[in-house]
Amino acid sequence: MDMSLKTKTITTAAYERLKADICSGKYKAGQHLLEKELCNDLEVSRTPIRDALVRLQEEGLVISKPHRGVFVRKLTEKDIRDYYETRAVLEGLGAKLAALNMTNEHKRYFENLMEDMKFALSEKGDNHKIIALNNALHDYIFKVADNDVLDKMRRTLSWSIALIRATSWINENRKFEVFEEHVKIIKGIVEKQPEEAKVAAEDHIYKAWESAASNLSNLSDEEED
Q1: Residue 141 and residue 160: Cα distance in Å, rounded?
Q2: Which residues cross the membrane (predicted)?
C-alpha cells in the first residue's frame, strides 16, 4: 500500500473513532483531550491523532487553546436554545410529511429499526450502536418526508447534534426515554396521522432540550478556566 494512502487511512480511522467517542459521550463536553492518552487508546502515533483533531476542530466539535491543548467543545445555554428551537420546527415538519407519504414498505422499515433499537438498548453500554440506530431512524423519517430543502437544513446542524446528544445522554435513563418518544413518533407516521406525528416529534425535541439544559450545568467548568 502507498505510504501516503496508508497514513490517510489511519488518520481517517482515528478521526471517525474520536468523533464517535465524542458523540457517544465517552469524552465529555469541556474535557481535555490529551494526545498521549488518545494515542494509547487508539493505538496509533501522534501524527494521525493531531490530523484527526484538526478535522474535529474544523467541524466545531473541539476547540484548541494556546498553551493548554485541545478540549471537547462546551456548548452555552444559548447554543442549546438556538439549536432546539430550530430543530423542533424541522423535526415536526419532517414527521408530518413522512406520515403523509407513508407506504407499507416504509412501515416495515420503521418497524425493523425499532426492533433493532430495542435490542441495542438491552445491551448495556453499547451507546455507539444506539446512536447509529437513532441517526438511522431520523434519517429515514426525512427520507420518507421527501423534502430535500428540509433535509439539507437539518444536516447543517450535524455538529450541534453530536455535541448536544453527548450532553443530553449523560443521564443513562435518557436513552430509554428517547425510545418511548420514538415509539410515539413512529406510531403517528405509520398510522398516517400527520398532526399526531408532528406533535410527537416536537415533544421529543423539547424533552431532549430539557435534558440537555439540565445536564449542562452539571458539567465541568474546565473549558471556561
Answers
A1: 19
A2: none
